[in-house]
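Final report, closing paragraph on structural work. Over the funding period we assembled a curated collection of sequence-structure pairs, and we close with a single example.
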Amino acid sequence: MDKNIRVAVGGVTGWAGGELARGVAHAADMTLVAGLSRGAAGQTLASLTGHKDTPGVAAASIEELGQTPYDVYVEYTKPVIAKHNILQALAHGAHVVVGTSGLSEDDYAEIDAAARKADRGVLACGNFAITVVLLQKFAEMAARHLDHWEIIDYAKAGKVDVPSGTVRELAFRLGQVKQAAQAVPVDQVSGPKETRGATMSGTQVHAVRLPGYQLGVEVIFGADGQRLHIKHEAGDGSKPYVSGALLAIRKVQTVRGVVRGLDKVMEGL
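Its predicted structure, as stored:
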């Protein structure tokens, strides 16, 4: 890949995608060459990012990018269109960084097959914040030594997808260590089984959607006479996610197929 990485951002005016687009536009080793936004279609990327040397205009769909060459596509749109965008970008010959939540294990299996066929990398990160990367690593360490745990997913009242991509990724990764033990299996409880949450990759997951939250995740480990809480909470701003996303853009070319987790390309983790 050329030293100047040509980047297309899906969700270029979104809460996270907009901040990332500005970060890409101002990065010395990247150029923002394309962006997707239905609401801002036709507007110049220079005006959207505040970087006067950024070329091009926002497109309403990934198909409208046409012959625009880009090396890395960053998916930051909506769950209902995310898989389609990713598959189109792979067919275009680009590597893909995934920040959108809501993709299932079946979705990732299909994406992995397409990426390997195209000889491209897909770096799927439920969250680009370094504190989340550390939470995932610490939780995996704890799961190797403790048998019981559950996950609580916190988000704002209007967040439609449940659980968040961060929690989906965490449950998946813990499931790669082992499945959480249950003193009473869900199918044997007395009362509404839904109160025990959803089982994901062998872990019980509980989604909280209330005003006052932005994004948060807590994994609780229990053992005889002791408990371990590992918790991440995000503020209202999206800047903490930019540096991790830029790192993912720089590193995705080094992988093939789907790789889950930013830590997989970070030195020392």
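The two ends are 25 Å apart (CA to CA). The chain has two domains: 5-124+238-265, 130-234. We thank the funder for supporting this effort.
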